[in-house]
Design goal:
Order of helices and strands: HHHH
Largest sheet: none
Number of strands: 0
Shape: globular
CATH superfamily: P-loop containing nucleotide triphosphate hydrolases
CATH class: Alpha Beta
Strand content: under 5%
Radius of gyration: 14 Å
Oligomer: single chain
Structural class: mainly alpha
């Protein structure tokens, strides 16, 4: 049920005015960058990140707080730096 009503575009969010403005500006003029969404549970961090990634066709690596270890972060960084030889 929650998946059905979850916003899929930045403009569909209710509230979160400042994060919406920032993400909208980034979506309009994307540049290479890494973003960290921080805040209490249930505030829309993951949903906003997914909407932003979808709007700019970016790659999203979600690491939940329960999985956030130095080893997990190193794994994600190595995935992001991978470049095929061909």
């Amino acid at each position: 049920m929650t998946e059905r009503y979850r916003p899929h575009a930045i403009a569909e969010f209710v509230g979160l005015d400042k994060p919406k403005r920032i993400c909208t500006r980034l979506a309009a003029n994307p540049y290479a960058s890494a973003w960290l969404f921080v805040g209490p549970s249930g505030t829309g961090k993951t949903t906003m990140a997914r909407a932003l990634a979808e709007s700019i066709r970016a790659e999203l690596h979600h690491i939940s707080s329960q999985e956030c270890t130095v080893e997990r972060l190193r794994d994600v960084v190595s995935i992001c730096h991978y470049a095929p030889m061909c």
